[in-house]
Amino acid sequence: MERSYIDIYCERTGPEHWAEPVNALTNFAFIISGLLAIRLIRARRGEAAFDIVPWLFATLICVIGLGSWLFHTQAQRWAMLADIIPIALFILIYTWYALCRFVRAPAWVCAAAVVAVLAVAMAVPPLTGFRGGSYAAALLAMLIIGGYLNFIRTHPAGGDLLLAAAVFLVSLTFRTIDEPVCQSFPLGTHFLWHLLNATVLFIVVRAMVLYGRRI
């Protein structure tokens, strides 16, 4: 009996482990991104090299790659959770620390922003029909925090967050059009989402390493 499986991306045509080879293999981009972030952290001197926060984000990048690999090979509900939970954690924790370390905002502002990101993520799907509510929330957070840092505070992390937002917008576009282009391009475009998102994650972690000093 053929096993049940989750089929939401263009490349997958059956339940087999290697039914999404390109979507699966491009998850190595996250591992590379995480390792580059670790290399950058290790290059730091003194106390900065022992700051746990950048290490947390670098580790999460690798976990995101592993979770996405599992989903694109196993296509099961548990694998989907392994895919989306690390991403959600990265978005929420980064929102907190971007405000805490770049903006120097008090804890209540950081907490309110995390709640706002959660609220946007939950509201977007029922209001718009767009399944990636957490991604829309992440893009909005990068634009708001990056814009504030760049244009009001002239903080060096602002430009990085805006650059990450621009790349993420392109990445999100490729994720969104994966299904509509299936008939004309059976491979789909989800693999580009992986490659560009790995770049986005490195950019934001690099900003945290370089500019997110502990208070």
What's the alpha carbon Rg, rounded to whole Å? Answer: 18 Å
Largest β-sheet summary: none
The mean pLDDT is 95
Order of helices and strands: HHHHHHHH
- What is the straight-line distance between the termini? 58 Å
Global shape: globular
Number of helices: 8
The poorly predicted ranges are none
Q: What is the CATH architecture assignment?
A: Up-down Bundle
Q: Briefly, what CATH class?
A: Mainly Alpha
Topology:
Blueprint (H helix, E strand, L loop, with lengths): L20 H5 L2 H15 L9 H23 L2 H27 L3 H22 L4 H20 L3 H21 L13 H22 L4
Helix pairs in contact: 2-3, 2-8, 3-4, 3-8, 4-5, 4-6, 5-6, 6-7, 7-8
Question: Key features?
Answer:
single chain; 215 residues; mainly alpha; Rhopdopsin 7-helix transmembrane proteins; 8 helices; 72% helix
Could you explain how this protein is built, in words?
The chain is mainly α and 215 residues long. The protein is built from eight helices and no strands. The protein is globular, with a radius of gyration of 18 Å.
In short:
This protein has 215 residues and is mostly helical.
